[in-house]
Design goal:
The structure holds three protein chains of three kinds. Chain A is α/β, with parallel strands linked by helices. Chain A contains twelve helices and nine strands. In chain A, helix 8 packs parallel to helix 9. Chain A starts with a strand and ends with a helix. Residues about 235 of chain A have low confidence and may be disordered. Chain C is built from three helices and six strands. Chain C has a five-stranded mixed β-barrel with strand order 2-3-4-6-5. Classes of the chains: A alpha/beta, B alpha+beta, C alpha/beta.
Chain lengths: ~240, ~425, ~220
């Protein structure tokens, strides 16, 4: 338990304005260095789960602990800080800020988090060197680094997003359908890269996707609509 | 957190085509607002500096403001003339220290011609009691000699010794010239920043001389009197436009004014320059305030345009805001980001407006100086103008809070996964 | 709810700009006032109005006092008239009640009285007194937009519509510091040391003057 990177207990969460909870589960754990595949079609409470893990919202009942820190004891601003310190996010698409350069995008977490910044500096001579190293290991050639965001392909953009999530070695990486917008022959390649990098840095990986072919690559698989009591109720309704 | 500034700047720059229009609107409207304020004060300054130490302006009974505008500033409609006898009588008044007779009516290439005598150079003061100085040459002595103001010399590139021909009447239409009686420039006055600069000065006798063979505003056909022959005739004027009066005791002005008004030999009036100017500003002030209000409204319209442009962009930026939240931005940071964008464009607009105004004043300054004898200084904003600017920026700041607030609420609701 | 926030924000911004315009606009001049001549009526005073002063001031002649505004004692305009001067002197010896209507002597006496009043002397004993007095401004010289020299008269409209005051009811004021936002026929208080000017004209003693160390607007408490 004390090792758990993510530990949710007896959660019940209702969105403001709703009458019934969208997420109710007994427990959801992710250990340190563990890589978990979470499947959940829309309506299974996936967005709620990510919001709770990220500390965007707090559950009405139950506890959320990230790296041993219970999130409900933190004030909202502290939760925002905690999120960037320890979690890197990758979304399905539109991950990048269009008016920033590739490198500025990658280094965004270091601007908001001194903790990530210091850890990034330990990886290279300066922040830029650390970013370069990460981009290289994600198969992005230096020639691409100076391009504008809009000039990259979706695959390239997703890899830049991965670099942003990984800079400064956060303890947890959450990827929300990161391959769904990619061509099918690229999806495996992307997953390879992510998993490899998380192993290198020792980060836990929570990989949310509906694509069962990718699930094979994970040791642990969780079906959200099985552990979420509310999803059950919806499906049976 | 301080890196939000460059972030906001880059975000605004990214949408520079849309925001650029709003920037232009704000720039133009603040230039207009400032410009009206600047011109208002400078024109008033210019007018009050134009005459100093003159207790009364005496002329035929007309509106006091019109007499002031015509006699001192040489603009506006011509007033009726007064008799020379009255001027002589005025000079003999025991309360009077000095008089300066003035006669207007002719022009030279758009600049008014003033006929007067040596008392003008002796007693005329402007600004803070400054007397007229000759920059070059000397006062006119002989009939066909003239002294010109600094603006006339500069604009028409005249030097002492040049010959010029005067035209009958004022205005821009084709005027008849007094071609047979040219004048030689004997002196150029130092710059005063008053209508003196754009005036061509001749003697009262000269004014009579050039109109000797004229009748009713046109030369009498067949009758010519050559320039060399004019001295054979009586060149004392019969009528003049106005007389400037300086009293021995300023506090006695009311009595003298009353006496002139009560004098039954000719319907005259005496005007206190300070009072007449106050009256002018009261009338003009209404228009000025209306202009200021209109400019203020245009500024508000510009602001509203800016705010709506930023608000409209919020819809497509929700993913971007979610990404920022995911890398640690608090909802307050999101609010700041949007508010700073608005404020940055606002500030840039106001600064651009000041620059535009300065450029406009540099361009128009010489024209206004030549037309009205009023100098506009393209200086940095003075105290009153700075107040206007600061209030405008404050208004822009308040307006920028709106998109910030909206983004704040959106961000709270969307979190990491905006439902579009 | 949100639309209320937006609308109130825009209105707030508008009010801010409007307030700044009011600060910048021609002072003491309502935007919608019709363009009237300065001396006709400025809405508060009518031609011939005097400013209210303590009625006791008229009865008691000037006395340096310990009160009121650091040694500038308020006086009434009547104090500027010599104490022994009698306005009714031209009427002495003429029994008005006994005259017929239209008797030319009445008219003549009145004309003489007006001349007498016009040429009234000043009071030399007022020289050097530190006084405070309210009156109406007649602008003479400005420094830029600020007024630096003016005449102070006792009643409104004293330069156009009514006979001008005599010499002992006019103070020629030089303001130590040029004053902003003052126009002709504004009501002001002046503080300063009165000086009696002598000149060699046929009119004898020429009049009162002063370098005023303070010029402030006169606020009529009864209309506020």
């Amino acid at each position: 338990m004390s090792n758990a990177a993510i530990a949710l207990r007896d959660i019940s969460f209702t969105w403001p304005g709703q009458h019934t909870p969208t997420l109710a589960l007994e427990h959801f754990d992710v250990q340190a260095r563990e890589q978990v595949f979470v499947s959940g079609p829309s309506g299974s409470g996936k967005s709620t789960l990510l919001a709770l893990i990220g500390g965007i919202n707090t559950a009405q009942s139950g506890s959320v602990a990230i790296l041993g820190q219970p999130l409900d004891t933190l004030a909202a601003a502290k939760r925002d800080r905690f999120r960037v310190d320890h979690i890197g996010f990758i979304f399905q698409q539109f991950n990048l800020i269009p008016y920033l350069s590739i490198l500025d995008n990658v280094l965004l977490p270091c601007r908001f988090s001194a903790y990530r910044r210091e850890r990034a500096l330990a990886q290279g001579a300066d922040l830029l060197a650390a970013a370069h190293a990460l981009l290289r290991s994600l198969d992005l050639a230096p020639a691409l680094w100076t391009r504008a965001v809009t000039q990259l392909s979706i695959g390239q953009q997703q890899r830049v997003a991965a670099a942003r999530a990984l800079i400064g070695r956060p303890e947890i990486v959450v990827a929300d359908e990161p391959t769904s917008a990619l061509d099918s022959d690229r999806q495996q390649g992307f997953l390879d890269l992510i998993q490899h990098e998380c192993e290198q840095t020792g980060a836990s990986l929570v990989f949310v996707s509906h694509d069962q072919r990718l699930a094979q690559r994970f040791d642990r698989r969780i079906a959200l609509n099985e552990i979420n009591r509310c999803a059950h109720a919806e499906e049976n309704a | 957190m301080s890196f939000l500034f460059p972030l906001a700047a880059k975000s605004a720059w990214n949408r520079r085509y849309t925001l650029g229009l709003m920037l232009l609107a704000i720039a133009l409207s603040s230039a207009m607002l400032l410009g009206i304020e600047r011109v208002r004060h400078e024109v008033r300054d210019g007018f009050t500096q134009s005459v100093s130490g003159t207790d009364l302006v005496v002329g035929a009974r007309t509106s006091p403001v019109q007499l002031m505008l015509y006699a001192i500033f040489r603009i506006g409609g011509a007033t009726n003339n007064m008799g020379w006898d009255s001027a002589l009588k005025l000079a003999k008044n025991p309360a009077v220290a000095w008089t300066i007779p003035l006669s207007l009516g002719d022009s030279h290439r758009g600049f008014p011609v003033l006929a007067t005598n040596f008392d003008y150079f002796r007693h005329f003061h402007y600004g803070d009691g400054q007397a007229l100085q000759m920059a070059e040459g000397r006062e006119f002595a002989d009939v066909f000699e003239t002294v010109i103001g600094a603006e006339v010399a500069q604009r028409l590139h005249y030097r002492v010794g040049d010959h010029i021909v005067l035209s009958h009447g004022m205005g821009s239409m084709h005027l008849t010239d007094h071609a047979d009686k040219p004048f030689v420039i004997t002196g150029i006055l130092a710059r005063t920043g008053t209508p003196v600069d754009r005036t061509v000065h001749i003697g009262l006798d000269a004014m009579e001389a050039i109109h000797l063979d004229w009748e009713g505003g046109a030369p009498m056909p067949g009758l010519t009197i050559k320039a060399a022959q004019v001295k054979k005739f009586n060149l004392t004027p019969k009528t003049i436009t106005a007389v400037l009066v300086g009293l021995k005791n300023r506090a006695a002005v009311f009595g003298v004014q009353r006496d002139i008004g009560d004098d039954s030999s000719e319907p005259l009036m005496a005007v206190l320059p300070g009072v007449a100017l106050d009256e002018l500003w009261q009338v003009v002030g209404v228009g000025e305030n209306a202009l200021l209000v209109v400019s203020g409204m245009v500024v508000i319209v510009g602001l509203a345009g800016l705010v709506s442009a930023i608000l409209a962009s919020l819809g497509e930026r929700r993913r971007e805001l979610a990404v920022l939240r995911s890398v640690g931005a608090r909802p307050f940071d999101i609010f700041l980001l949007l508010a700073l964008e608005g404020l940055a464009v606002m500030l840039a607009g106001v600064i651009l407006g000041v620059i535009l105004l300065t450029l406009a004043l540099l361009a128009l300054g010489p024209f206004l100086s030549a037309q009205f004898g009023v100098t506009l200084h393209p200086a940095l904003p003075a105290a009153g103008e700075l107040t206007l600017l600061l209030w405008t920026i404050l208004a822009g700041f308040v307006a920028s809070l709106l998109p910030g607030l909206r983004a704040y609420r959106l961000s709270l609701a969307d979190g990491l996964t905006p439902r579009l | 709810m949100k639309s209320i926030t937006w609308i109130s924000g825009i209105i707030g911004a508008g009010l801010l700009v409007g307030y700044s315009l009011r600060l910048a606009a021609t002072p003491a001049m309502p935007v919608t006032a019709p363009p009237a001549a300065v001396s006709a009526d400025n809405g508060q005073y009518k031609v011939g109005d005097h400013l209210q002063q303590n009625p006791d001031l008229v009865a008691t002649p000037y006395k340096p006092s310990v009160n009121s505004d650091a040694s500038y004692k308020e006086i009434a305009w009547e104090s500027l008239i010599p104490k022994d001067w009698d306005a009714m002197k031209p009427f002495k010896g003429l029994k008005l009640d006994k005259l017929q209507d239209d008797d030319p002597r009445a008219e003549e006496a009145l004309w003489k009285a007006k001349q007498y009043w016009k040429n009234a002397p000043i009071d030399p004993s007022m020289d050097g007194k530190a006084i405070r007095i309210p009156g109406f401004v007649v602008s003479l010289e400005r420094e830029g937009e600020a007024l630096k020299e003016f005449l102070l008269v006792p009643y409104f409209g004293a330069c156009i519509h009514v006979p001008p005051p005599p010499a002992n009811q006019i103070i020629h004021v030089h303001s130590a510091k040029a004053v902003k936002d003052i126009r002709t026929m504004d009501a002001v208080w002046i503080n300063g040391v009165l000086k009696v000017d002598h000149s060699d004209t046929l009119m004898g003693s020429a009049g009162y003057s002063m370098t005023s160390i303070k010029v402030e607007p006169y606020l009529d408490k009864s209309t506020q």
